[in-house]
Amino acid sequence: MRLTRVRVPALGEDLPDTRLVLTGPEVRHLSVMRLRPGDALLVFDGRGREARAELLALDGLRAELRLVEELPGTPETPQPVTLAVALLKGDKLADVVRAATELGAARIQLLVTQHADVRDIGANKLVRLNRIAAEASKQSRRAVTPEVLAPVPLGAFRWEGQAYVAHPYVHDLLTDHLHWDSPVTLLTGPEGGFSEAEMDGLTGRGAQGVVLGSRILRAETAPVALLGAIVATGV
Amino acid sequence: MRLTRVRVPALGEDLPDTRLVLTGPEVRHLSVMRLRPGDALLVFDGRGREARAELLALDGLRAELRLVEELPGTPETPQPVTLAVALLKGDKLADVVRAATELGAARIQLLVTQHADVRDIGANKLVRLNRIAAEASKQSRRAVTPEVLAPVPLGAFRWEGQAYVAHPYVHDLLTDHLHWDSPVTLLTGPEGGFSEAEMDGLTGRGAQGVVLGSRILRAETAPVALLGAIVATGV
Fold first, then answer.
1. How many angstroms from the chain centroid is the CA of residue A48?
2. Across the interface, which of A45, A215, A228 has its CB nearest the CB of B140?
3. What's the CATH superfamily of B81-231?
4. pTM to 2 decimal places
5. What strands lie across the sheet with B5-7, from one edge to the other?
6. Where do the TM regions start and end (chains A, B) (predicted)?
7. For a surface tag, which of A75, A108, B22, B124 has the fewest beta carbons within 10 Å of its beta carbon?
8. Interface of B with A in 147-166 (CB under 8 A)
9. Could you read off the pLDDT of A56-101 as tens digits, one per residue?
C-alpha cells in the first residue's frame, strides 16, 4: 500500500525521534485518509527533504508525528504532474512546453478542444515539441524529460488522481485542494477557453475548478501560472 | 494608521458577527504586529472578498476574530506588487510585460544588472513596452495598466515594504513570508542570474531569498512563476 504523504514545515537537523505538530489542511487530509495512531506515513518539507514518520495522535485540528528516518530527497514532485493543454496557434505550444519542463511537469498531454483554431499537429511538430522538452530539461538541469503526447479529444482524455481546471466562475484555490497522495493533472484551454459544455464535462468527471486571479489569462500564461504556483508553494 | 490585513479561509454568507478562528502563519503575523483584543483589522479571503473585523483573542497559536462588515471587493492585489526584472534580450521583455500585466503586477521596473547582455533600452522600446502593458490590460479585462519604468542600476533600485528574490541556495518559500501588510516587490535576474555580489547586496538590504523549485528557470519564466504563485494561492 502506498503511504500517505503530507507536507510539513522545514525538517530540522536531528531527524529521528523528533516530534512535529501539524495544524491546518494537512490534518484534515490525514483524517480523510483515516490514519490512526501507530500508522506510518511520509512527510516532505517542500524544500527537497523527505522522511518516514509515525502518527502519534490525531484529532480534528492537530496531528502529532514522530520522525523516523530521512529518505533521499528527490528533485521531482512527490507525485507526477501532468499538464493537459489545448492545441495553441503558432509557436505558443513550444513556449508552454519549455516553461512546463522547467517547472517540473512530468508529462504534457495535448488536447483537441471545441474552441481551438488548431485541430491537429503534424508528426514533425510533435517530434519538435519533444525535442524542445529534451533541450529544456538539459538547460534547466533536470534529470527527467517530460514526454509530449499526441493530441487526444478532450472528451477522450482520462486522468488518474486529482485534476484541476482554471475556471472563471468558482472561488476555490488550487492550494485549497492540492495534495500529494495521488497524481495531479492541470487542464488549460485554448485561446477561446473551454466551452461551457466542456467545462461541465470536466467537472462532472471530477475535475476541480480553481480560480486564477480575477483577470482573463492568455492560453499560454495559465499553465505557467499554475505550475509556478506549485513550485513556489513548495514541492 | 493603516489596518493590518490578514488572509482568512472563505468568507461565508452571513458576515456580521460571524466568529472565525485562525491558526498558522497569519496568527504569527498578528503577534508580530502587536495587535490586541479589541483592535480592528481587515481580512480577505483570497477569492475577491474583504471585510472589516475585530480581534477578540490572540495567543501564540490561534486568533479569534469577529467579522464586522463586508467591504467592496477589489480585483487588484491588497497591496501593490512590483515586478523588478532585469533587461532581457530580444522580445523576452515583451512576453514578461504581457504575462505580468495579466497576473496583476502593479508596476514593472526594469533593472540594469551585472550579467545582462543588454545595458539599456531605447526610448522607443520603453514606449512599446508600455503600449504592450496597455493592450494586455485591455485583453485581460484589467482596469489598471502597470507602468513599465525605465531601467535603473540594481544598486540604485529602492523598494518599500517586502522584497523577494529567487535564490538558488535558500530553502525559504515565497508563501512562508509573503503577507499583505506592505507593498511587495519581486526581483528576477537576467539570463546569467544575479551575480553573487548582487545577491549579497539584495539580501543585505533586506530582500528575502526564496526557492522556486529545484531546476534552473529561464529569466522569462521566473517572473511568471512568482506572479502565478501569488494569483493561484489567492489574492
1. 16
2. A215
3. SPOUT methyltransferase, trefoil knot domain (3.40.1280.10)
4. 0.79
5. B5-7, B40-44, B50-58, B62-71, B19-23
6. none
7. B124
8. none
9. 999 878 999 999 999 876 678 888 999 999 999 988 999 999 999 9
